């Protein structure tokens, strides 16, 4: 909803225009009024204004001075000057700005309405055409590397929020392509102290090494080098020419990469006095599998043979003893595959997304991500399986943390009985645990929805009572939102969502109801009733009452007196 502020030192003009635009439902305007430049500035300090319809010739603060204040506070605001001054020299300053227009007071009300309508349509067109997006695209080159890193890191971590597509690669001007697999390399400085307080020095060291890697690899390869949250290097590499990953070209590329990385290690030691280790994927990874290989290489980078640093490990050259032992502990191939699936999920951001979707109330997304874990978990037979216990504890902590923060413990117990998250002995099998997690998750979302409804009902009830108790005062959306500490637009939406009525409709109905109650008392003058229900003049009140009821206030009073007699 756009906000319109009407400013003039002549009250009769302001009140008339206020009633006109307040009744124009097709514009969906939230209308405010001010009888001076000073009062207008108070509104500008309180809330955003989208359109200001103002007189130029006002005492103390005139329209041109007000214009400067408007653009200082709200640069995107549109101004329409309503003035009796036709001298070009006086208005010349105002019309130099593209967001300023003017009409003469001598022109009829239709011209004023037309000017406001055109301004409203202009604002909505600007929003639709995505001016903000275009501006962002024009400036994206300033921080292109940061955008590239953020996008690729999300892909590597397995985020469901991003996909590898040609459109995204082209937009980010990535030197690699989404149409070919990549050879993945993960590296770290062995002697980098993460506890070192000299942040700038640490960053300088890291970027010096990054430049060295870039110098060795980019001459004959297509590659991108990014840094993760732990200051580890991740290098995504493709041959310069498009070749099939099944050909010898990829094998030669891998040999070349290993040779160049050895050179990088030597140069880092000689020139920068740093040791650096690398883990290299032996096979090119597709973009669908890249997250799994990324996490596997991170684990491999911690693998050590002896006590030496500066290692260069290729994933298929490391003994698979651990995997063989793990497989021996599983009763079936299906169970082993389920365990490996769970193990790969523990190295992604999946549990972070599960927590975020729970907090945001995105039920479908939450269960979509949760099922990725629960399905393989239910296939584990061994109750003492450590991977299953790790996954179970991660989900448990997520749900327990949420319930504790929002005080849901007693409500959950009343709905589904005892909370059985303390330890796994409460379950006969992992399948039993999975069933309980699903049941508890459904319960939590039901309680979440009820709690949100309760909060909304409390807000709506408070606002309705406040309106009825303050009918003669300012009942603007801004003032109402200040009472419940909500954004005005959000309050407007939630009121309509919960009551199926606009706030203005409720206010008008409350004013009519109160006016009818007062009109039965013949001792109260109509202009006094007008003030008590929020109208500056009896004329505006009469117009409003008649449009709502079909009769004037006096006619309503007369008919009531006739009925009583």
Automatic annotation (TrEMBL):
Molecular function terms from GO: DNA-binding transcription factor activity; sequence-specific DNA binding
Residues recorded with modification 4-aspartylphosphate: 55
Domain HTH araC/xylS-type: 461-559
One BP annotation, GO: phosphorelay signal transduction system
Signal peptide bounds: none
CDD domains attached to this UniProt entry: REC_YesN-like
Domain of life: Bacteria
Keywords from the UniProt entry: DNA-binding, Phosphoprotein, Transcription, Transcription regulation
PROSITE patterns: HTH_ARAC_FAMILY_1, HTH_ARAC_FAMILY_2, RESPONSE_REGULATORY
Stored InterPro entries: CheY-like_superfamily, Homeodomain-like_sf, HTH_AraC, HTH_AraC-typ_CS, Sig_transdc_resp-reg_receiver, Tscrpt_reg_AraC-type_HTH
Any one Pfam family match given in the protein's UniProt record, by short name: HTH_18
Residue intervals of the Response regulatory domain: 3-120
PANTHER family attached to this UniProt entry: ARAC-FAMILY TRANSCRIPTIONAL REGULATOR, HTH-TYPE TRANSCRIPTIONAL ACTIVATOR RHAS
Name of this chain's protein: Two-component system, response regulator YesN
UniProt lineage: Bacteria, Bacillati, Bacillota, Bacilli, Bacillales
